[in-house]
Amino acid sequence: MKRRHALECCIAGMVLAAPGLAFGQIYAMMNYETKSPDSLKVLKTPVPTGPRKDGIAVIDVDPQSKGFGKIVQDMPIPPDFMSHHLFYNRDQTKIYVTSLGKGEIRVIDMKKTPYAMKVVAVPDCQVGEDVVFSDDNKTWYLSCMGNQTVVIGNAVTDQPTKSVKVGVPYPHGVAVSPSIDRMLTTGTVRASDGGDAGEMISEVQVSTGKVVNSYKVSNKPSPSGEAPVEILFVPGVNPPMAYVTNLYGGTLWLMRWNTDKKAFDVSQAHDFAGENSGVPLEMYFSKDLDRMYVTTGKPGSMHIFDTSDITSPKLIKSIPAAEGSHHVAFTKDGRYAYVQNALLNLPGLSDGSITVVDLKEGKPVKSMDTLKMMGLNANCVVLLPKWNDPKGH
């Protein structure tokens, strides 16, 4: 059995080391978990799931490939790790896997195949969420939703170096702007039950770790329960500006650095109620910053905005995906977007598929249901470095 497993890993490594082979042109990496009983209800054919599974799969996602949907490598993870998100570092040489269940992250060296994970202890982190990297690729920042902390680590050795207590509970999204020495985190929801939804963004001076301000991202009376979830600085603009998605509020907000005040001005940029959409999640930017892509989990869509005026996004198209539309992976050639449809195994937000969108045609062209039909949800998706366009991440 061990010899067979070693042979399978060797074959997978050969496949990934020779990506020009005719039977597979685009590969993606997805972390997965067993579907909850409620999310299993979306399947037309019942699937016996057995004990809970957690892991990472490498899958052929080329819609024109004969091997479309085929798993070429599977990396099991202990089920109590509860893998959550996958994040590339700046040069896409490593992937960082966050954990909802343990004070750990796992790191994958993308230069070596078959892929394997290194365990890094992060004892100061409870409920690890997002990871972002410094511009020089030497430092990482990990938001810890369970204990109001951001852990900062050395991105060369991958060891944590210090922990910063942020000003607002339940930090989920994290964004860093070195030009103004600032870190922003979103105050989202209590991790245990999704309650106590926040409405604030915390501002920290990176060099000192000092909390310097907080900002309300809602027009409603407090407590509004908007639950800001993701935050992303627009790449390369000066003065800096960041966009925020409000999970429960269904809105998109803009934070612009005011050089005179040395603080951010905040304003609402879009309300998804006009598209009968809710649960906005991830944001991405085109290289020229003329397009922004935003996912909403209900009923499941990827929205494309014209951002020729980066401060005034205008919706130009909403592309249907499936319930729980969350992360998106984009090909470097601009042809395909892969929308991952699942959010925390929540009922009504956990279809489990990957929607393949042809960006040139502006429509979905295929659904990758491999994990879904195994009774699993993909929790995140990235393409392997040869194909992956980070879109501002």
What does the model show?
This protein has 393 residues and is mainly beta. It contains 1 helix and 29 strands. The chain has a single domain (2-389), classed as YVTN repeat-like/Quinoprotein amine dehydrogenase (Methylamine Dehydrogenase, Chain H), CATH 2.130.10. It is 4% helix and 48% strand. The strands form 7 sheets. The protein has a 5-stranded antiparallel β-sheet, with no helix packed on it. Strands 3-2-1-28 form a 4-stranded antiparallel β-sheet. The model is unreliable at 1-24 (pLDDT under 50).
Q: How many strand segments?
A: 29
Order of helices and strands: HEEEEEEEEEEEEEEEEEEEEEEEEEEEEE
Mean of residue pLDDT values: 93
User: What would you give as the CATH superfamily?
Assistant: YVTN repeat-like/Quinoprotein amine dehydrogenase
> What CATH first level would be assigned?
Mainly Beta
Classify the helix fraction into a percent range: under 10%
Number of helices: 1
Strand content bin: over 45%
Q: Give the structural class.
A: mainly beta
Shape: globular
Radius of gyration in whole Å, from Cα? 20 Å
Largest sheet: 5 strands, antiparallel
CATH names the topology as Methylamine Dehydrogenase, Chain H
Q: What is the CATH architecture descriptor? A: 7 Propeller
Task: Write a concise synopsis of the structure shown.
4% of the residues lie in helices and 48% in strands. The protein is built from one helix and 29 strands.
Spell out the blueprint of helices and strands.
Elements: H1 2-17, E1 27-34, E2 54-60, E3 71-77, E4 83-88, E5 94-99, E6 104-109, E7 117-121, E8 128-133, E9 139-144, E10 149-154, E11 160-165, E12 171-177, E13 182-187, E14 200-205, E15 210-216, E16 228-233, E17 241-246, E18 251-258, E19 263-271, E20 278-285, E21 291-298, E22 301-306, E23 314-320, E24 325-331, E25 336-341, E26 354-358, E27 363-368, E28 376-383, E29 388-389
Antiparallel strand pairs: 1-2, 1-28, 2-3, 4-5, 5-6, 6-7, 8-9, 9-10, 10-11, 12-13, 13-14, 14-15, 16-17, 17-18, 18-19, 20-21, 21-22, 22-23, 24-25, 24-29, 25-26, 26-27
